[in-house]
From TrEMBL:
Record keywords, A-Z: Metal-binding, Zinc, Zinc-finger
Database matches in InterPro entries: Rbsn_Rab-bd, Rbsn_Rab-bd_sf, Znf_C2H2_type, Znf_FYVE, Znf_FYVE-rel, Znf_FYVE_PHD, Znf_RING/FYVE/PHD
SMART domains named in the record: FYVE
GO MF annotation list: zinc ion binding
Coiled coil: none
Protein name: FYVE-type domain-containing protein
FYVE-type domain segment(s): 299-368
Pfam families reported in the protein's UniProt record: FYVE, Rbsn
Amino acid sequence: MTTSHQYNYQDFVPTDALACPICGVTCLSLQDLNTHLDREHSEEDSKGALLSWLRNAQKKVSTSLITTSGPKQWVDLSNNPTFFVSDNHTAQQSEYVTRDHWQRETGNDKCAIQGCVRTVGRSGAGKQHCRMCGRLCCGVHTQYEIKLSRQAKHDAENGIWSKVCMECYVGREGYMNHQGVTRSKTDILLNKRAKIIDKVHLESNRLEKRLEKLARIHLSADNSNERFIHNNSNNVLLSPSSSIQSVSLDRADSVSSMDSSLGSVLSPKSSFVSNNNSILSMKLKYRDGEQSVTKWEDDKLVKKCPYCESTFTLINRKHHCRLCGKIVCGNTRCSKMIPLFIDMSSDTFDAEPVGDTRACCHCIRYAFKRKLSNEQTQNVPVIFRLYHQLSITRRAIENQLPKFHQFILALEKQKTISKTSESFIKATQIRKSLLDNFALYDTLVKSIKALPARSPCMKRLQTNICTASNIYLQQNMLPLQMLPRILKDKPERKQLLTQLDTFIEQSNLIEGFICDAASEGRTDDVKTLKLSLQELQHEIDQIRSKLD
């Protein structure tokens, strides 16, 4: 059965007076000591002093903490030097960041932040020194941290995280930079891009050379076939009966040879291939030469098209790309018949092709890259040319509008506007130029809208351009209406002066009537005449304000 031990809190409280471990001031109780430490030494490095004081306190109370049921438990503070320090950054700040510039306390210090009326260290306001500027601030305005060097200067790379006031946090270098940190990757991009461009150029040059070889093969095969036909035509009689007899003999020969192999019949060297079947014979003649340009893939190894993944069947036949040797299908998105040119060094397609052959989409893009790029540069679509002119006109309008606004403001400030003044003449010239540019702008927009749309994307592009242009015209043509309004004819000064003289004469007459009525004692007439005199005086003041 375990016995419970009763501990008295007073046994652990020192009976002697307590001294501050930092400055040595005598305190009556632990509460007084804590209050003294909070007020006088809240920002000082009290680590060493606190540890020494706690070691002395441990020696006094360690004997009372021994339990009878277990061994003695000792706390070695030397092995845990930072056990009682709640903020590691404070130790680093105390060790590295200087405090020579700190503001000295007077006991009634206000927060240094402009607009803050808190007294630091009282009523829960808190008290902190800004590590950067050294001023005393309340706890609300010192909740920021930046990296400072030992000299209390901002050092974002090698500094130590330190508490600073709001003004130092906002005013540090780079805080108002909205772009942020940027690192230029242009050199890396250019290096990688140059390698890829070189690779593309090498691939394009290689395919162009292959196209030239194929063109020469086709040209030589065509020339030999023409010579063969020309020689045979000299040995054949031109009578109709002989022609019919030759055709019947060819048919009889072809029927009698059905047992022979298909390859021997369709061979270009076979005597059974007539001149009427020259297309097939020419294709077979081309094949040997085309296979010498690049190695063809084996038909048995390829089951699907590498581009559209369609399976080869009796309907979907296999075709070899004559430039790379790949097996592709006959879909126009995968392979096409392309023209053959003897000279691929030219940038245009003006030369007459000597024949055609099949190539995959990948090889077509690289083989004709230079020619297509040059053609696209020379043959710019109409909508691009119109939009380019539209952009030029818009820049001209935007350059003239600020000048026109300045002249309008200057004319509005003038009391009298003369049509012969320099400001009026310049404003009129700019207005005329703006009207011409706006008319040209509107014409270009209508031309873009009237273009035939070949696709939904092109139609949407035209609609967006027209919508944005109409909004631009509505927003910027309004100031042009201000000049005629300013130049509207105002009441003539002479007419105003005439009215003023008339009202003054009437006012003098009414004043005389008032004097006569007052002398005769007619009070009702005096009141009526005074009201009329006030109305006349009001009209006189208005006319004088217009004349001023």
